[in-house]
Amino acid sequence: MAFYKALENVELKKYSEASPSNFKVIFYSKGLFKSTKLFDKEIKAKVSTYFEDDSKSSLMISKEFSHLDADILFVRDFDNKKSAYKRGGWLASLFLALDKYGVESANIYVDTTQQFKDKNFVFELVKTAEKATYRYTDTNPNTKKETTLRNVEVCVEKSSAALKRSVELGLNVGRGANTARNLGNRPANHATPTYIADQIKALAKEIGGFKVKVLEEEDMEKLGMGSLLSVSRGSVEPAKLVTMEYQGGKKGGKPVVLVGKGVTFDTGGISLKPGAKMDEMKWDMSGAGSVIGTMCAVAASKIPVNLVCAVGLTENMPAGNATKPGDVVTSMSGQTIEI
């Protein structure tokens, strides 16, 4: 598994550089739409009349039934009176619509929305595009087919270095999130502690910029990590402790430290969990997945920060040698813990 890539290409382009035949997405905001140079008076009048009905949220115009050179989806602008967190759902619905229409390449004219005034909007849109296009298909041939969207051109009248950076950051954060999701969605007999540790090393080699160190159970025994080791006692899968280190900030500067729980499957051990929905315990490593995805996004984006990430990878299974309720183990700090 590599640094997950749902979209093949995402670029910032000026209007004059945009691919003319691509499916177009235009946001409808009364004031901005009136002043746009993208359409003639006839189109402006027809679209504005359509959106006078407040119940209308979108309008699709086919090039086959108009004089336009491409299919266009007009989307009513986000209502700023609504809670800010709902903007993410509004953006996600846009990409669901593109999937519905079977769009492979889309030009999204981001400066046609009032949201463009928010410096984080382009970042959020690109991040959402990458996340919304994600599908897990690695081990299940019956999974919903992959989306058709492959290329996105983020179109603006005037480009800038800040906008290009927003596109880059949004794409890398989206890919980091999808990398975490893909690790979590893999079945527990695939995403073992050993598999995930190997994937971290492969990601470090692919992306570059961060170092990886893997501690085996023998190393942890020497360091007195009795607490972590107590979890894997009943499993045939050996535990791993993986640390990742990225130095993008000042030399010697204090790092941000993230720690992720990585129980690749948690049966509850001797205290067995109920069988119903136990399959969902494969996601008990999602904390580790999130930390791994964060490191990938930070390193790929070359963020100026020092970051250290640690993930404890283990499987909790019942067995004759599994840790029992009431057992006492000793942690690396020397503290004793009654299970």
From TrEMBL:
Gene3D superfamilies: Leucine Aminopeptidase, subunit E, domain 1, Zn peptidases
InterPro entries referenced in this protein's UniProt entry, alphabetically: Leucine_aapep/pepB, Macro_dom-like, Peptidase_M17_C
Biological process annotations from GO: proteolysis
Gene Ontology terms, MF aspect: manganese ion binding; metalloaminopeptidase activity
Domain annotation Cytosol aminopeptidase: ranges: 178-339
Keyword list, A-Z: Aminopeptidase, Hydrolase, Manganese, Protease
Domain of life: Bacteria
GO cellular component: cytoplasm
This protein's record includes keyword Glycosyltransferase: no
Keyword Protease belongs to the record: yes
Family: Belongs to the peptidase M17 family.
Name of the featured protein: Leucyl aminopeptidase
Organism per entry: SAR86 cluster bacterium SAR86B
